[in-house]
Amino acid sequence: MSVNTIEQNQQRQALHDYDEIWLFGYGSLIYKVDFAFIQQSPGFISGWQRRFWQGSHDHRGTLEQPGRVVTLIPAAGMHCFGMAYQVTADVFEHLDHREKNGYLRHEVVITLTDKKQSREVLGLIYIADESNEAYLGPASEREIAEHIANSSGPSGENSEYLLSLAKSLRELGAVDDHVFNIERYLRK
Ligand code: SIN
């Protein structure tokens, strides 16, 4: 059976106590914005690194042949760049469904960088850790590129996920060697 975190997420934070909440996106949430937001800002979180270590049963692969999508792993001293969105609480109903394949909501400090002076806000983030059933874990960047080249699911080709992410990171001026190396292998 495919992993489904919707119910777990609904019990994690009492979102309806808030008028608005910041959400940090570091994967498809950067480039596929299918939800309403009040404002957005580029930003980063500290102590985390993006990795194509999560399996995708429902978007970029299937239960039988999972694709590979990004999650975060703890990494002291590192910054992970992405996009932050200020949203209303009702948006999480849609997001919990979209991120249901192993991702749990966590609280995180986000540094917003769109103004001359950066500022910190508290927000939420979806992370799929190694305890979820769809987790695939490490592989070489070349193997990950091959895996991605051969995967697709209901949301489209796995390669489109990778290429869209790499493009949007470049547009943000962010450098992510892991993503860019896999992109290079894929294009070969
Ligand atoms: C995110 O984008 O923040 C979570 C992972 C994904 O949906 O690709």
Give the domain tally: 1
Order of helices and strands: HEHEEHEEHEEHH
Residue stretches low in confidence (pLDDT < 50, at least 5 long) are none
Largest sheet, in brief, is: 5 strands, mixed, barrel
> If helices are DSSP runs of H or I spanning 4 or more residues, what is the number of helices?
6
CATH class: Alpha Beta
What is the CATH architecture descriptor?
Answer: Roll
Find the structural class using helix and strand composition.
Answer: alpha+beta
- At the third CATH level, what is the topology name? Hypothetical upf0131 protein ytfp
**CA-based shape:** globular
DSSP helix fraction: 25-40%
Biggest sheet strand order reads: 1-3-2-4-5
- Mean pLDDT score: 95
Bound molecules: succinic acid
Q: Tell me the span between the first and last alpha carbons.
A: 35 Å
Radius of gyration based on Cα positions: 16 Å
Which oligomeric state applies?
single chain
Would you kindly provide a written description of the structure presented here, covering whatever features stand out?
- This protein is an alpha+beta fold.
- It has one domain (about 5-185): Hypothetical upf0131 protein ytfp.
- It has 6 helices and 7 strands.
- It has helices at about 5-10, 30, 90-100, 140-150, 160-170, 175-185, and strands at about 20-25, 40-55, 65-85, 105-110, 120-125, 150-155, 155.
- The strands form 2 sheets. Strands 1-3-2-4-5 form a 5-stranded mixed beta barrel. Strands 6-7 form a two-stranded antiparallel sheet.
- The longest helix is centred in the C-terminal third of the chain and has 15 residues, at about 160-170.
- Succinic acid (SIN) binds near residues 26 and 69.
